[in-house]
Write a structure and sequence with these properties.
Blueprint lengths: L4 E3 L7 H10 L9 H12 L1 E2 L20 E3 L6 E5 L11 H6 L3 E2 L13 E3 L22 E3 L6 E3 L12 E3 L4 E3 L14 E3 L19 E3 L1
Parallel strand pairs: 4-6, 6-7, 7-9, 8-10, 9-11
Antiparallel strand pairs: 1-11, 1-12, 2-5, 3-4
Length: 216
Amino acid sequence: MTTPLLISLFPFLLLIPALCFSICHANSNVLCIQSEREALLKFKNHLIDPSNKLSSWVERGDCCKWIGVVCHNSTGHVHQLHLAAPSPFDFAEWDAYRQSKLEGKINPSLLELKHLSSLDLSNNNFSSIHIPKFFGLLEILTYLKLSQAQFHGAISHNLGNISKLQYLDLGGNDLKSKSLQWVSGLSFLQYLDLSSADLHKANDWVQDERMNMVAH
């Protein structure tokens, strides 16, 4: 038995165009921080990239100009990483869609991105791994989207350590959880999607005045 769970507030819908604006208007004159460029290259080296979408990620390149990377327009620190695979509707052939997905492992070098506030790895194919426990150490994240990325296994309670998180989408993965107590640590959370997760053993659902919880 599986029990989807969706928590949402209307104002958070405004986040999506705001993120798009940031990506489309990133300051091209800002140079990235060397240590953060090295961290991103370590991250890339553990990925499988069939379509070579990360071809711009090169050793001596400016990571602020790499696909999917958004730097702060005054400090040069990486603060957004958006590597979602495209929708299947963008492709005429299944093989092209499948090859657009990143695979492989997620390197803990992401922890070196001390200013990272937004991470989107949705629609990729991480079918061999759990959601990394170290994500719980990305303490300033406000936006985490991992939907439809083929993660499996138990949801780590470490996600509850990301205390500034406002948006969390884990929907469409093969996940399970015996407890949702970790959600209580997310005091700023406005949107939570656990659809497709097996929650039939979780009888400690968290609900308060901040959230509208819908189970279906």
